[in-house]
Amino acid sequence: MKLLMQPDDGIIPLIKGITRARKSVEIVIFRFDQREIERALANAVSRGVFVHALIAHTNRAGEEGLRKLEMRLLAQGVTVARTADDLVRYHDKMIIIDRRELYLLAFNFTHLDIEHSRSFGVITRSRSLVREAVKLFEADTMRHPYEPGLARFVVSPLNARKQLAAFIKGAKKELLIYDPKISDPAMIRLLEERAKAGVDVRVIGKLTRKSSGLAARKLSQIRLHTRTMVRDHRLVFVGSQSLREMELDARREVGLILCDARVVSRLVQIFQEDWETAAQSAASAAEEPEPAGRVARKVAKILSRDMPPVAPVLEQAVRELAGDRTGVEVDPKELEGAVREAVKEAVREAVEDVVEEAVEQAGGKGA
Predict the structure, then answer these.
(1) pTM above the 0.85 mark?
(2) pLDDT computed for residue 286 by the predictor
(3) I need a labelling partner for 70 at 20 to 30 A (CA). Which of 38, 194, 328, 353 fits?
(4) Are 186 and 140 in contact (CB under 8 A)?
């Protein structure tokens, strides 16, 4: 098993893997602007390798770039399929070589992700993991239902919440987390519970709500684009899903839970270095909201301020649900405040997503 670390490793390991293929290359694409990888796929076709690309039906930039990529690949002899549109997004990133080797990536096939971001990937020849990856690829290509068959092969929205919750609950001493945005209330509660139990929980990334028991630092020296956790210097999760409701419950995301001493050791070392660098950056400059966060807060404030009164409607709904049961009291002001806060939080998160992905797309200028 091998760990890929970006931006250090770059695209060379990916191209080498495609170049070694003798029978087949199966690749799942969400974003793509790496022409070197595109050429490697075309060269594989010319060697008689069956190359099958599964391209997301859409991303934030829309379908135009994806369809142009599809036409180019088809012209080069690649077999192309599109994902279904039943989920909000198909956001996983994989390459399967000769159905013997799996590249599970937290990064997209873009210059921004590979050359200018902290991210990770894993190369494994584990037969059970490769077999499960093939099973998922075939199901999504044929638009058939996928039934998870391996707990450590983590797939949203099917088993990700269950497996990642169990991963967190199992921490006894330490939990090191890279995550651009942790916002799922249930997952945050689990992290808080672990911290109260004496587990050293550290997050490089962002928590959307303040928590006295959780330490979080911003990775300021480089863009963060990985979802990775290390538990008790023994287990690792690497994948495409953040601890966010959307990525756990409404999108296709894929990750792996692994037990490999070399991978664990390297990830712990990188995390410690990033953690110290983040502390130095925070000490040398006053923390201020990122541009996406500032924009999101302004939009949320405007929308919540202009919201029509909702308390009367909600109060009536609560009473209808409660029926004739006595003792049900609703505080209109409390209800109104709770709704406005919920709306503001949802709007903030949505706007931040749009701004951040617009920046990502501008940086990549590809599919």
Answers:
(1) no
(2) 47
(3) 353
(4) no
